Amino acid sequence: MRIAVLSDTHREVKKAEDALIMLGEFDCLFHAGDFYEDFLKLKYKFPVSIAEAVRGNCDSHSYPERLMIDLFSYRILLVHGHQYNVKSSLNSLRFAAKELNVDIVIFGHTHVACKVEDQDENILYFNPGSVLETGGKSSVGVIEIDENEKNIYTKIINL
Which domain holds residue 142? Predict the structure, then answer.
């Protein structure tokens, strides 16, 4: 299963569309907040089997703040990250991930792509960055789950 991961699109729907076209085929679309309305436009342009999003700090409170998603044998937490102060550290997010017993945490908010593998807890933290040029870089992410081999592959793609 190939998952396209976006965050912090901030009304740059065309850039997000171009990035998703560049990724090629994908089965799922996850958006980690800021701007939920962008996600709504993208999910209709790119119909996939699973499309999920959460609200960020720039979104309406009418959208979900966090989602738990089960794919194959993996449990995924999708959040924006502002509520866990991810710009300072991942500590609060780590506590939440352990408490919720997740395998993968997808978050945004920092506009900086990162991948952290916690070998002790066996949890992957994945931030796709932003399609905005923050610090000269814009990016999206891909997560591939190979259920047969129980492997997860990730990639940050700079635009």
Answer: 2-158
Indicate which CATH number applies to the domain containing 56.
3.60.21.10
What's the total number of domains in the chain?
A: 1
CA-based end-to-end distance of the chain: 22
Q: What is the pTM of this model?
A: 0.95
Residue pLDDT, tens place only, 101-119: 999 999 999 999 999 999 8
